């Protein structure tokens, strides 16, 4: 599998907007349907906001994936924040540490074909989402 990546820092709310724009532009470039574009952008927006809100910022990589004739888009969110003490609990619908609806992580998982999360308390979190065309 090959990947072409674009990396950007997320430090401000404006950076969340640029992540959304970058994900949409890459999805359009790859020929994703409007529905799939919207799913990707929604998931990326939520995860970028989480990066800012819970970790004070981090790095986002937007990667084009090629696997034989299949093409996809992966977005990776990495931070060096406090980590998630209980990932299973954090993935439950309705669970929130910030007073929100508690649909961010679980919603992003539902909007993705592939969702991976690695988190070490005190070290940081890495979340990877992907959609295939």
Task: Show the helix and strand layout.
Layout: E1 2-10, H1 13-29, H2 34-55, E2 58-67, E3 70-79, H3 87-90, H4 104-110, E4 114-120, E5 124-132
Antiparallel strand pairs: 1-2, 2-3, 3-5, 4-5
Question: What would you note in describing this structure?
Answer:
With 133 residues, the chain is an alpha+beta fold. It has a single domain, classed as 2-Layer Sandwich (Heat Shock Protein 90). It contains four helices and five strands, in the order E-H-H-E-E-H-H-E-E. The protein has helices at 13-29, 34-55, 87-90, 104-110; strands spanning 2-10, 58-67, 70-79, 114-120, 124-132. It has a five-stranded antiparallel β-sheet, covered by helices on one side. A hairpin with a 3-residue loop joins strand 4 and strand 5 (124-132). Helix 1 packs antiparallel against helix 2 (34-55). The longest helix is centred in the middle third of the chain and has 22 residues, at 34-55. The radius of gyration is 14 Å and the shape is globular. The mean pLDDT is 89.
What are the segments in which pLDDT stays under 50 over at least 5 consecutive residues?
none
Give, in order, the helices and strands: EHHEEHHEE
Strand content: 25-35%
Mean pLDDT equals 89
Radius of gyration: 14 Å
What profile does the largest beta sheet have? 5 strands, antiparallel
Number of helices: 4
The CATH superfamily is identified as: Histidine kinase-like ATPase, C-terminal domain
CATH architecture: 2-Layer Sandwich
How many domain modules? 1
Overall shape:
globular
Structural class: alpha+beta
* Strands in their spatial order, largest beta sheet: 1-2-3-5-4
CATH class: Alpha Beta
**Helix content range of the residues, please?**
25-40%
Let me know the number of strands. 5
CATH topology: Heat Shock Protein 90
């Amino acid at each position: 599998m090959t990947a072409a990546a674009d990396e950007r820092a997320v430090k401000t709310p404006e950076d969340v907007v640029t992540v959304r724009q970058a994900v949409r532009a890459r999805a359009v470039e790859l020929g994703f349907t409007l529905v799939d574009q919207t799913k990707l952008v929604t998931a990326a927006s939520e995860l970028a906001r989480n990066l800012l809100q819970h970790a004070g910022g981090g790095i986002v990589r937007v990667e084009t994936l090629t696997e034989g004739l299949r093409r996809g888009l992966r977005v990776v969110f990495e931070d060096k924040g406090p980590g998630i003490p209980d990932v299973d609990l954090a993935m439950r619908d309705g669970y929130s540490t910030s007073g929100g609806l508690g649909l961010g992580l679980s919603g992003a998982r539902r909007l993705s074909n592939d969702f991976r999360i690695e988190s070490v308390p005190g070290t940081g979190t890495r979340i990877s989402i992907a959609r295939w065309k």
